[in-house]
UniProtKB/TrEMBL annotation:
Catalytic activity: small RNA 3'-end nucleotide + S-adenosyl-L-methionine = small RNA 3'-end 2'-O-methylnucleotide + S-adenosyl-L-homocysteine + H(+)
Keywords annotated in UniProt: Magnesium, Metal-binding, Methyltransferase, RNA-binding, RNA-mediated gene silencing, S-adenosyl-L-methionine, Transferase
SUPFAM superfamilies assigned: S-adenosyl-L-methionine-dependent methyltransferases
Group of enzyme by EC: transferase
Gene3D superfamilies: Hen1, N-terminal domain, Vaccinia Virus protein VP39
Hen1 N-terminal domain mapped to chain residues: 1-242
Record-linked NCBIfam families: bacter_Hen1
Protein name: Small RNA 2'-O-methyltransferase
Keyword Glycoprotein: no
A GO term, aspect molecular function: metal ion binding
InterPro entries (alphabetical): 3'-RNA_MeTfrase_Hen1_bac (IPR024026), Hen1 (IPR026610), Hen1_N (IPR024740), Hen1_N_sf (IPR038546), SAM-dependent_MTases_sf (IPR029063)
Amino acid sequence: MLLTISTTREPATDLGYLLHKHPDRVQEFPRAFGVAHVFYPEATDQRCTAALLLDVDPVRLARTRGKTTPDFSLGQYVNDRPYAASSLLSTAMAEVFRTARSGRCAARPELAETAIPLEIVLPALPCRGGPTLARRLFEPMGWDVAADPIPLDPAFPEWGDSRYVTLTLKGELRLADALNHLYVLLPVLDDAKHYWIAEDEVDKLIRAGEGWLAAHPDLTLITRRFLNRRTALTRAAFARLAEVGDDEEETLEPPAEEEVRIPLNTLRRDAVVAALAELQARTVIDLGCGSGQLITALLDRGVPKITGVDVSAHTLMVAARKLKLDRMGSRTRERVDLFQGSVTYTDARFAGYDAAVLMEVVEHLDPPRLPAMERVVFGTAKPTYVLVTTPNAEYNPRYENLTGLRHPDHRFEWTRAEFRDWANAVAGRYGYQVEFRPVGDDDPEVGSPTQMAVFAKEASV
């Protein structure tokens, strides 16, 4: 199996820093099913290419096969695993480029956070769904996709195409994002995995999908295939993804006898929209807007001016694409603004709004940064109203298969008492009054899954 990653951002050899693999060395990484080799076919200041070559030993693979591996005599030895990109390559890439996937680079920290021109090539990729599915899965993240079918036999064109494609991806993205896209989508396109799917697979999916999966239009297909259609795990993944606050609008189809449930992120968005309508807010700033779910709902409600802010440039690009800003009529386009910013740094552009919304944002801040956010939002921007939603930690035991926090990027999750203590203290310091509202099913024992605080300037009450 072969994967190549190329960049033309000069000096292009900085790719070695991002991958933590020196361009002048050939490195080997033994795996249970073979050996992964990393080398650089070209390494100049103008263009650099890193190659991951996975040499799979079919005999070792058969001896270490998982419970889902077909157990018939020739099938253990005669198959496409040594040649075609699959979960084997995905797993090897995740281990060999572990630090690169996390986005950490001590030598070039600013480069690790920068979108750079990338070209990724997979010469043979199993694709159950053909070139159309490959484009559907990769294009929403900003890739230009070329998926060329591989014929069954070039000598006999009448036989048609095989289920394999040569995949070429081009785009400007963070290298960490690109690697995580591949980690998730290679086994999804193959629609198979070489190992037994356990409960920790949900955590792997959530971590690798951070910032893009919840907003992907094919989230349902990706999640089901990645988790080998295991219903309990898929349901748990959807519940976890809904907590992120992004645009997952599809849910796992429940059995016929179950009641169809509205996703929590939809209930949360609707609760915020209803509160803003009740407050008659005509100008709204969404701090931590993600992929624009709330902005879309407020546009539909006719709010005259809506601004979305996010710390991630990639997320803002996704929001602009989902909102179809480039195809909006001029009058509608004038109502929407998007810009990059952080709620922990004073920004004059935050001021002058009727209402500010922090929907599932505060729990992503390190606790020592909360006072900075409070000063920026409540002390400097000073909107008439501030709406804050955050998970209710007491509700977490109601989620099957959830261990720890609801999302790997959460720094904390408050109980109802902790949230009230924080909100009341902030209101007292900055001259606001605050009321609390449940969002979602209000369990008599543990409360609602999401809790919302509505702050109002005392002069406006």
